[in-house]
Design a protein that fits this description.
Elements: E1 6-10, H1 14-26, E2 30-33, H2 40-46, E3 51-55, H3 56-62, H4 66-73, E4 78-82, E5 97-100, H5 106-123, H6 130-139, H7 147-160, E6 166-169, H8 176-185, E7 194-198, H9 204-212, H10 229-232, E8 237-241, H11 248-260, E9 262-263, E10 272-273, E11 277-282, H12 286-291, H13 297-303, E12 306-309, H14 320-335, E13 338-342, H15 344-352, H16 358-373, E14 375-378, H17 400-403, H18 414-432, H19 437-443, H20 448-458
Parallel strand pairs: 1-2, 1-3, 3-4, 4-5, 6-11, 6-12, 7-8, 8-11, 13-14
Antiparallel strand pairs: 9-10
Helix pairs in contact: 7-8, 11-13, 14-16, 18-19, 19-20
């Protein structure tokens, strides 16, 4: 997932360096360590480093002017510095330097790495303005060009400009967290943390402490004060995934935070103010849960100030080829394989499948095929059996006569040949249906509006509208 981010760790403390390296490697990042006496800037350039994680005192001692020079090496380079800056360093005035106290909290470190990636995403758009800026930011995280996705992108762009609470609904695997991250990236809070919490993945007895933190001695095992996700998301965005699984007692406490913008850590005697934007998500029907009294009605209305629904993949089938090619390029790079693509028949089978697991299922399938096939093209026989039961292509089978077609000696314009073949199929379908565009579109496995657009684009006339 994070293979495109290269991180350099610069720390003379071998134990800390190895700990951070092991943790971030496990999270999927490309990790390099600054070798003893190796030139810092040369290493950053040669290894195309995106993020530097360092003990500020160590890096300042080996590269005294690194803060002045870091932006000239790579304007998008981000430094995550931990420890005491001291010595009058200008670290606090650098927007591309994020700080972290010692001793290191690995969860907070990962949050800063995520924040660094979001900062780089937004910074890379500075040369683009207006709507193009927003479109590019969305396209970096969400993939689609269908009408439902264009409508979704427009809604996200509008929502991001406000601080209103958002409720994202959609089936599992549709990309609800991607939508939440896009809202954060396009908001004025994008330089602060985006903190995700999966309410269904954390045991009920731990979720309160996870959200609000706790004070030392508040329960068995609370050996020190611990900041909760609300505190970590201060001035930023808190994403509450699977909110429909939250138990009633925590629903009451969450409602108070939304109403008063304050919370109490577990075991604390005082409330703590917080400035957090809440984006919640669920694959459940909260209105039905409210009717069954499984979810508080007042909390539902607090969360759904702006509701957003992510369309399932079966309702935007035209995005499937784009998604497939995007995932294919990513996994080819990650796995260092050279799978060239999918045959027409294999792609048609994918486009006719209903995808109960949505985009996540498609992503997992492409990754599996890249690993197992490795090279060449994916044919229908390479697909798992369940993907072979979809609708068959409406195109006629290749006959023996067609398979014997020879390429002319002087060559051919393949685009013109394909266009002519498509024109013939369209006219045959219209002839067979007596000019009924709806029935012709069904024969061609097209939407009626798509067929009409093709007729206009190709200047093909057949009867009246």
């Amino acid at each position: 997932m994070h293979a495109n981010s290269s991180i350099l760790i610069a720390d003379s403390d071998v134990k800390t360096r190895d700990l951070v390296s092991a943790f971030l490697t496990y999270q999927g990042y490309n990790i390099a360590c600054l070798e003893h006496n190796a030139p810092f800037f040369d290493t950053v350039k040669k290894q195309n480093i995106d993020i530097v994680i360092t003990d500020i005192a160590h890096l300042s001692s080996i590269v005294p002017d690194f803060l002045d020079r870091v932006a000239t090496v790579n304007p998008l380079l981000v430094v995550i510095a931990y420890g005491n800056s001291g010595n009058g360093t200008k670290i606090d005035s650098c927007e591309n330097v994020f700080t972290l106290p010692k001793p290191l909290n690995l969860d907070e470190l990962e949050s800063l790495v995520m924040r660094a990636r979001e900062y780089q995403t937004m910074k890379s758009l500075d040369t683009v303005s207006g709507d193009a800026d927003q479109h590019q930011a969305l396209s970096l995280s969400m993939i689609g060009k269908s009408a439902p996705m264009r409508e979704l992108f427009g809604l996200i762009t509008k929502v991001a400009a406000s601080n209103a609470t958002v409720l994202i609904q959609g089936e599992s695997g549709t990309g609800k967290e991607l939508a939440a991250r896009a809202i954060h990236q396009l908001s004025t809070r994008n330089r602060n943390n985006f903190i995700p919490v999966n309410c269904a993945a954390i045991p009920d007895d731990l979720l309160e402490s996870e959200l609000f933190g706790h004070v030392k001695g508040s329960f068995t095992g609370a050996y020190a004060n611990r900041a909760g996700r609300f505190e970590m998301a201060d001035k930023g965005t808190l994403f509450l995934d699977e909110i429909g699984d939250m138990k009633a007692n925590l629903q009451v406490k969450l409602l108070r935070v939304l109403q008063n913008r304050e919370f109490e850590p577990v075991g604390a005697s005082k409330s703590q103010k917080v400035d957090v934007r809440i984006v919640a998500a669920t694959n459940k029907n909260l209105e039905e849960q409210v009717a069954k009294r499984d979810f508080r009605e007042d909390l539902y209305y607090r969360l759904s100030v702006i509701p957003i629904t992510i369309p399932p993949l079966r309702e935007r089938r035209e995005d499937i080829p784009l998604l497939v090619h995007t995932f294919l390029a990513r996994f080819n790079s990650d796995k260092r394989n050279a799978l060239k693509g999918f045959s027409r028949e294999a792609m048609e089978l994918l486009c006719s499948y209903d995808w109960p697991g949505n985009v996540r299922e498609l992503e997992n399938l492409v990754e599996r095929l890249v690993i197992l096939k490795g090279s060449g093209f994916i044919a229908p026989e390479d697909l798992p059996e369940k993907y072979l039961t979809g609708k068959h292509s409406s195109l006629p089978p290749v006959t023996a006569q067609q398979s014997d077609i020879q390429l002319p000696e002087g060559g051919i314009c393949i685009n013109s040949a394909v266009d002519e073949f498509e024109n013939r199929l369209i006219m045959q379908a219209l002839n067979r249906t007596g000019g009924n565009k709806k029935e012709a579109a069904l024969l061609l496995n097209l939407k009626r509006t798509t067929l009409i657009e093709k007729l206009k684009k190709k200047h093909l006339a057949f009867g009246e509208e």
